Amino acid sequence: MGLNIKNEHVHELAREVARRTGRNQTSAIELALERLLAELRREDDQTTRLSLIRLMQRAAIGIDLDTETLYDTAGLPR
């Protein structure tokens, strides 16, 4: 619990979000970080889905999918 922000612009942003949402500054920052993380997780999920779609497309057109393409160095699916 040792976060000490010494950036005036960040303080201004936190104050504005707090004022507009009726929250305190800590809660406003928590909300912003939760939303950012949710967006990043959605992007990660989309990247994974696109990779799987590309693999399925390659398999459908007959491109050989060797183990190096399908698995990483730890033997886990890409």
Care to give the gist of this entry?
The chain is built from three helices and no strands. By secondary structure, the chain is mostly helical. It has one domain.
Features:
elongated; 78 residues; toxin-antitoxin system; VapB-like; Antitoxin VapB; mainly alpha; 69% helix
Overall description:
Pfam families: PSK_trans_fac. The two termini are 36 Å apart. With 78 residues, the protein is mostly helical. The chain has helices at residues 8-21, 25-60, 67-70. It is 69% helix and 0% strand. The protein has one domain (8-70). It is built from 3 helices and no strands.
What would the principal axes of the Cα set say about the shape? elongated
Low-confidence stretches: none
Number of domains: 1
What is the number of strand segments? 0
Number of helices: 3
Strand percentage? under 5%
* Cα-atom radius of gyration: 21 Å
Q: Secondary-structure element sequence?
A: HHH
What class, by secondary structure content? mainly alpha
Distance between the termini: 36 Å
Helix amount = 55-70%
- Give the overall average pLDDT: 88
Sketch the major β-sheet: none
